[in-house]
Every structure is written in C-alpha cells, then in structure tokens.
Design goal:
GMP Synthetase, Chain A, domain 3, 41% helix, 22% strand, three-stranded mixed β-sheet, 3 strands, alpha+beta
C-alpha cells in the first residue's frame, strides 16, 4: 500500500522527489500511512474541497480491502 500511495502522490505533485510516505502500525492491526509532500504541493494533493485527498484514501482503502487489511491515509506536514 505504501508504494501505491507514493506512486499516486508523485503523479500529482510538481516535486515528486519530496514525496514521503511513512508506514505506522496501529495497535489494532491497522496501518496508518502518513503522506508528506513539498510545501508548494499540498494544494495538489488535497485538491479543491479535499476531493483529491478523498480519492486517494478511497483507492488505498479499496486496494487494502482486497488484501483483507485496514489502511488509513493521513496527510501531514513535514
């Protein structure tokens, strides 16, 4: 899932070399993916009204469900 999120995010931003995805295991067995991008690229990743961020979360959750995993995406400041 980490690689998928990284791939999708790099396609959205102008500075793909600044994209970082950190995988954090949760106590309940779920996984939290923390996405950080360059300061100028947060608008591209979040999108108008949060639509792009919501779409990223939907794609990752659907891919994780296929593997019977629970994965959450959080967009964080670097």
């Amino acid at each position: 899932m980490r690689e998928l999120l990284e791939y999708l995010a790099k396609g959205l931003v102008e500075h793909p070399d600044l994209v970082r995805v950190t995988e954090v295991p949760e106590d309940d067995g779920a996984t939290l993916l923390e996405l950080s991008v360059g300061d100028d690229d947060y608008g591209s990743v979040i999108g108008r009204g949060g639509r792009t961020a919501s779409a990223l979360r939907t794609v990752i959750k659907a891919a994780a469900a296929g593997q019977r995993r629970r994965v959450f995406v959080d967009i964080v400041d670097a």
